[in-house]
Each structure stands twice: as C-alpha cells, then as structure tokens.
Amino acid sequence: MATKSTSSKKSTTAAATTARENAEAGFTASATLTKNLQAVLVDLLDLQLQGKQAHWNVVGRNFRDTHRQLDDIIEAAREFSDTVAERMRALHAVPDGRTATVAKTTSLPAFPAGEVDTSETIDLITQLLDKTVATMRDVHDAVDEEDPTSADILHAIIEKLEQFSWMVSAENRTPRKA
C-alpha cells in the first residue's frame, strides 16, 4: 500500500488515489477526438441559435407550419448538443459552448438579420442542417476509429438531421415529371 511520508525526506512511493479520483478512471478522449466532438458540438449549438433566429423572424405563406417545424429542429439541436457535450464529459474532455467559441469556430453560414420569407427560410435552414451533417460526416471516421460509442451517437444525430432536411426542403420542391 502506498503511503505518504511524514518525514522531511521525499517519499519514493505515491500517495494512494482517493475514491473521488478513482471515479475519474476510464477511457479518456484524445486531443483529436475532443477536437472532432467539439466541432460537432459547436455546429449543433449554432444550429439551435440560428434556428431560433429563423423561428422569430420567418414571415409569409405557410408561416405556421414553418414556425412549428423550426421548433422541432431547435429542440432536437438542443438535445443533441447536450448529448454530445455530456459524452465529451464522460470521456474526460471539456466541451466549450461559450458564445464567443461558437461564433469563432462554427462552420455554419450566418442566418440573415430581419424578417425572412418562408421560402427563403426553408432554403436557409436546409443549408444549415446539411452543413451540420457535413461536419459530422467529416469527423465520423476518425471518431469511429477511436470511440465507436461516440460514432453511434453521431449516427443517430445524422439520421434525424437528414430527415429534418428532407422534410423542410420538401416545402419548396415541385414534383418531378415522370
């Protein structure tokens, strides 16, 4: 058993870890895994914020349905960002969701200020959804190589965001001619 030395001489044995320190044992994310999950987190947080901007400022035909669909996307992005951040903490990584970090590191294009027509909002939100998915797909293989559990989380998020993209973009589509 390791003990602390009570004399003025330096001990050659380490102090025993405490129960609290043992609770922090387990798989630890590498710098690369942390960076990749942070990129996903930032885009999900930005999707949530820009979704709210769209939600508050959408106007025009089919307003009510678009407004409600944005609520669904915003809520999902909030839940997904929380899942990613909590996964990072489980891997002893420190998520950074501060507004300055999100603004500086997001890969998403900015949603315009002011009122935006429903048709344009649909196109812009589809673009934000697709770009968020692209970030996840860009980091997926590296995440999967190091931590398949985190990759499984990305799979579930990608599936839902791609479904949102399809459903939102359908608002502006016209049927294909056979």
Describe the structure.
The structure is a single chain. The chain has 178 residues and is mainly alpha-helical. Helices cover 66% and strands 2% of the residues. It has six helices and two strands; from the N terminus they run ααβααβαα. The protein has helices spanning 19-22, 31-57, 63-90, 99-105, 118-146, 148-169, and strands spanning 58-59, 116-117. It has a two-stranded parallel ribbon with strand order 1-2. Helix 2 runs antiparallel to helix 3 (63-90) and helix 5 (118-146) runs antiparallel to helix 6. The longest helix is centred in the C-terminal third of the chain and has 29 residues, at 118-146. The radius of gyration is 22 Å and the shape is globular. Residues 1-11 have low confidence and may be disordered.
Quick summary:
With 178 residues, the chain is an all-alpha fold. Helices cover 66% and strands 2% of the residues. The longest helix has 29 residues, at 118-146.
